[in-house]
Amino acid sequence: MGVEHAALALSSMRDGRLGPPSSQDGGMPPQVTPSALAAALERYEPVGEREELDVRRLLDLVASGADPWSRSEPLHVTASALVVDARSQRVLLRWHERFGRFQQVGGHGDAGEDDPLEVALREAREETGLEDVYPFVRPGRLGSGDLVHVAVVPVPARRDESAHEHGDLRYLLGTDRPEAATAEHTGAPLQWVSWDDAAGLTASANLSVLLSRSRALLE
């Protein structure tokens, strides 16, 4: 795998079109391009009642007309990724000062961004210094770049921000140059660890789900 997979995955996500049923004269309705976020959520198949509820909440947020990426919304969307070196079967984790633990990389969308995969790729590049990160392509699904996990997670209040929730869309990304990983700043060190060590470092049940699903996909 290589950088070309990212281009394939991103282009495949832009091709789909949806159209609502027409209420006028029985003709074919005009085609409407869904947002990349809505398309990703509609395509995703949640596992279990909790994830189904989380996906439904995010679809309702998209349908509400509010900006789902806006930090002013008490529930808003983020995108993250687990970066893996498939050759050595190691996982790259980033220390997160706010939560006081190692986590996957990721964060908020920038102005004008809507595609959660593009957000996850950008955040991964910024937070790890790895320019070659690319989405995992599932066997038999060319350019898939599929979601691995969706979770609504609580975020505690701090001095400049009230408590809120992140609707986090999570991906599995690879790199062919793990040695190039560089921390974004001194307060966010990176650590390459084995799958088992990664599981031991996490105190988050929903991150454990991302780890276990990603490991199963690669094995």
Helical content class = 25-40%
Please tell me the total number of domains. Answer: 1
CATH architecture: Alpha-Beta Complex
CATH topology, by name, is: Nucleoside Triphosphate Pyrophosphohydrolase
**CATH class bucket:** Alpha Beta
Q: Would you tell me the overall average pLDDT? A: 83
Structure in a nutshell:
By secondary structure, the chain is of the alpha+beta class. The chain has 6 helices and 8 strands. Strands 1, 2, 3, 4, 5, 6, 7 and 8 form an 8-stranded mixed beta sheet that branches.
Model description:
The protein has 219 residues and is an alpha+beta fold. 32% of the residues lie in helices and 23% in strands. It has one domain (3-11, 34-65, 77-156, 166-218): Nucleoside Triphosphate Pyrophosphohydrolase, CATH 3.90.79.10. Strands 1, 2, 3, 4, 5, 6, 7 and 8 form an eight-stranded mixed beta sheet that branches.
What are the key terms here?
219 residues; alpha+beta; Nucleoside Triphosphate Pyrophosphohydrolase; eight-stranded mixed sheet; 6 helices; 8 strands; 23% strand; globular; disordered N terminus
What topology does this entry show?
Elements: H1 3-13, H2 36-43, H3 48-63, E1 75-85, E2 90-96, E3 101-103, E4 105-108, H4 116-128, E5 134-135, E6 149-155, E7 164-174, E8 190-194, H5 195-201, H6 205-218
